[in-house]
Amino acid sequence: MGNMTIVNSCLRLAFVCFCALGTVSAKEKQDKRKDAWKQYVGKPGPGGWRVNVIQPDPQDDGPDGFNYHDWDGDGDLDVFVNFEEGGYSRLYFNPGKEKIRGLWTDYIEFKKHGKCEDSGIGDLDSDGDIDYIANGGHVYFNPGRKELRDPGKWIKMTLFRNEARNPVVSDIDGDGLNDLIVGARAWYRQPAENKHDAANWKRHELGDAIWPMSCFVTDMDGDGDNDILVQERRKQGMFYYVNPGNEKVTEPWPVRVIDPNPSGMFMAYGDVNGDGRPDLVKAAGRVCIYLRTNDKGPPVYDKIEVDMPAQPGSVRVKPKPKGVAIFEMNGDPTYSEIVIIPEYEAQLWYLTRTGNGKWTNTLMGMPAPESRKKMDNAFLVDLDGDGDLDIATTEENGGWGVIWFENPGAYR
Q1: N or C end of the chain: smaller count of CB under 10 Å?
Q2: Beta strands 390-395 and 237-241: pairing type?
Q3: What is the C-alpha radius of gyration for the chain, rounded to an integer number of angstroms?
Q4: Spatial separation of the C-alpha atoms in residues 22 and 37, rounded to whole Å
Q5: CA–CA separation, 212 vs 120, rounded Å?
Q6: Cα dist from 325 to 281, 331, 376, whole Å
């Protein structure tokens, strides 16, 4: 009996050791995956594009959202990033052209404040400085250039305490002061005085939306006032709020639906076929292109759907289009191309308009597409100041973090 007890104890100890070794092995495997970016960062792919890292994300804090502006006035574009899982935000300062491809180590961090996916920026107190709006209802007012680098000097104002994606700063009522659209369903009017007091910001309802991916303020019907264009993935699909005029601007706005299908991810807005009319592109299972056919009045569109291209052999998942931007890629200025960022570990590609209204796909040849596990929207920005646009985004689950795809200039 005593020997059996010893044997059982040894077996239990061996099992515990085996489990411990398995845990370490799993962790080592995860760490290796998180460090994959180090093998490929800064190295050009077949098309010359490089993937540069502003800051990696080894702890899965989930950067999700990218805003750019020259906050410190040195002539270079800085980057505001919000971390979805981490619940905090950072303002990264551009290190300058000589160090632009390295990690950006100069930044300020706002204390953990909760929801902030797809947050926004804009001058919300009319002092000429760009402020930050987290989608969880917190506004951080810029204290001015002298105190910019002290996050404690930024004045925090809480308008609400729930998630409202894609806050957009725009003058809604035409009084010359920027207002704030939240969640594509309401807006807050900027007060004339005491702008840092939330009690002075009056909320007005627009309509219903659950999960807006994109929100643009633009004149959709050519009547001279701005409407609000929305791509919404859960309730109304693609639609716009019709501006009712200043007399009724504080009432709910009429809704005109463009596509009722509540699917797809981000949307781009701009002319893709060279006719001078603004078109729409939605990143969905099949990329949807809406070509506008009229100049004034409620917009009328021809819808075109384009299948996805075949991916490289290293990509083992079905790509899911997520980010989208309208961008000149092939040197022919007659038509712009449409850049697509897939959400999960796949290669970026772009669509080119060919004869008879056909569209073709071209893979962009970015290094190691399988190593990036969850990317976001496409932000076109000249981070390195060389005169051409780069493509920036955030990568949440593969360790890459905040990244930008450097334009090799081959398409100029």
Answers
A1: N
A2: unpaired
A3: 24
A4: 25
A5: 13
A6: 8, 17, 12
Q: CA separation (Å) from 16 to 10, 22, 58?
A: 10, 10, 28
Residue ranges of the alpha helices (H) in 113-194? Answer: none
Quick check: helix, strand or coil at residue 153?
A: helix
Query: What's the whole-model pTM score?
Result: 0.91
For residue 115, the one-letter residue type is K
Q: Kindly report each contact of residues 132-136 with a partner whose C-beta sits within 8 Å and lies 24 or more positions away, as own/partner.
A: 132/67, 132/80, 132/89, 132/91, 133/167, 133/169, 133/180, 134/82, 134/89, 135/82, 135/163, 135/164, 135/165, 135/166, 135/167, 135/182, 135/183, 136/161, 136/162, 136/163, 136/164
Tokens 């000589």 found at: 98
Return the C-alpha torsion angle 332, 41, 214, 189, nearest 10.
Answer: -120
